[in-house]
Amino acid sequence: MPAPTTDGFNGYRPIACATGILLHLLAWGMPATADETGETRIVTLRDGSRFRASVPPITLELAETGPSGVELVRTPLSLAGITRIEFSLAPAREKIAEILEAIAALEADTFQEREQASRWLLRNTNGFRSLLNQRKMGAETPPETRLRLHTVLVRLPDESPAANLRPFDRILRGEDEIRDGDLGPWECPATFRGTTLPLARQNVASLSRDDGATVNTVPQTVRQLEGPDDPAFGSEARSINFDVDTEGRPLKVGDDISSRFVGDGVTFSTSAQGSFVSVNVYEVSGPSRGLSAATHDPLYEGMVTIRFSMPGNPGVPAGVESAGLWLAVVKEHGTTLQALDASGEIITEIDTTIAPSQFLGLRSETPIHALRLIPHPDIDPNYTIDDLIFTAQYPTDGLGVKDHPTLSFRNGDRVVCRAFSIEDNEIAFVPASFEAVTLRCPLTEVQAIFAPLALKAKPMSPDDYWVELTDGTRLIVTPGEAHAISRLPGAKLESLPLAALWGATRVPSPPPPDLQWTPESGPLLVDERGARPLPPARLGERWIEPAGAAFPNGISSTYADSPTIWLARPDTAASRKGQVRFPNGERLVLGGSAGFRFKAITTEKITVEWHGGDWTFPFTDTSAVRLPEP
């Protein structure tokens, strides 16, 4: 057994039996060679940038893995014949060295060190199953090491790692050929907007053939989380244990919790017709071990969907980076947890693997807007959930990333920046992954500028309500005699072209498209019972008041819980105009009938002209500025 050191895995160096393999790996490494001409490729960076650039027709050498995971065959490949290259975070030989070091530590002198090595292998060897299996079957492998490797292999997930977490580089040629291996210390120049960018595996996630499709999407990286103590949740994660609601009020068996956690930014629904999600008495093996939640009737059955919104504001969908929960009464592969994006598409899914209870959690760079639990009745029709945990919600309007501004261009490119500046209708920007490079282009080529995503949206007051103006502008208003407008202090609500209003706890409902209704005939109230015209009305302190005849019996409310009331038809062209958007869902439409006009933007503030005066908003208090079309 080698003596402990201060470097490598937990202080251990690779054992002698690994030396030959590692020397074979470490001796290899050849930079790509390039010809003179280039072709357009879609470059996806690890920081979230994605753009078209000219890449020289390089020749790469791929060291491919054999059945054992370590025997290598070097193959030269021309970029011209490659559809897509996906780069692992580090050369595979570095990961293999770490794994061999950990396997060596399975023979350590102390039980604690051997346990620590087993845990590390379970967390870090997805994709290296063949290597572990080879070591397990080795004739000289000690019995305890063989047993520990067997345990790790049994518990490793069956699914392949997500693209950005694959242990090996991957090359796709055409539609059918996929080859995994190691491209070594890869680097290559690329030309973007007339400037050379130094590409390398440290900053590049993938190179793809340009098929003419939009590139303005966020790359997806997902990993499964081990438990609620996973560092991905951090110290500020929220949790719901179903013993008390958002206000701290005790819950009891049978309570409908569909909207009891709106203050936490979470709502629950079930696929069971006419039913709801309720509290039940079944004890789940999570931290709280109190009440749990499931479909009310039929109890424990059906699909349950958990949706995230901005806290206190269910009308503003939001995403989280990490989310998970405990499930009980489950069998292996009997229940599936799906993570959904803003459009309802599946980001990824995982199955239960341990009975009778298990924690399932995910971290995703694509914001998780909802979790959906799907039982498989042929295996296990029943389940209940407890101890939901999730990171703080953030608005996902657009393509912002956490730490830097993002520029979205009209041709579909997107670049995450360290900084930008605008002068004489030209924008200069420094890409976050290439801090020594400054690029320039006409401002007219920029479609939107996204502020760094920060957890900065404050929940609405439960007494507030929303208004939408005829041009699509949305604002939060505090009721009362003055009807104070949050973004426009001192402005009079009556002077604005109002189109609709609804309460803080409501989701806005559009007017039915086939309804024969004119604003002149009076307001239109739209709720779960349909659309009903009201007599002409005016804004009152408590709610709207009839200007003449009284409202029909049974129609009363306050601004806080008001259903959607339409006073004028919405402008269907609002989404095509420029906008200043805020994390809590407010937005100012630029160039619309309300009179807001774009004036200037810096990394410090946004200036909008309105009624002959300048109104400024801190750039970091916004989520995005969509520039008006030139």
Your description of this structure?
With 630 residues, the protein is mainly beta. The protein is 9% helix and 37% strand. Strands 11, 12, 13, 16, 17, 18, 19, 20, 21, 22 and 23 form an eleven-stranded antiparallel sheet that branches. It has an eight-stranded antiparallel sheet with strand order 2-1-10-5-6-7-3-4, with no helix packed on it. Strands 27-26-25-24-28-43-38-39 form an eight-stranded antiparallel sheet, with no helix packed on it. A hairpin with a 5-residue loop joins strand 38 (578-581) and strand 39 (587-590). The protein is flat, with a radius of gyration of 29 Å. It starts with 18 loop residues before the first helix and ends with a strand.
Tags for this entry?
single chain, 630 residues
Please give the share of residues in helix: under 10%
**In what range is the share of β-strand residues?**
35-45%
Largest sheet: 11 strands, antiparallel
Distance between the termini: 71 Å
Shape, principal axes of CA atoms? flat
Q: Could you list the spans in which at least 5 consecutive residues all have pLDDT below 50?
A: 1-36, 214-219
Mean pLDDT: 82
- Radius of gyration in whole Å, from Cα? 29 Å
Secondary structure category: mainly beta
Strand tally:
43
Work out the helix count. 5
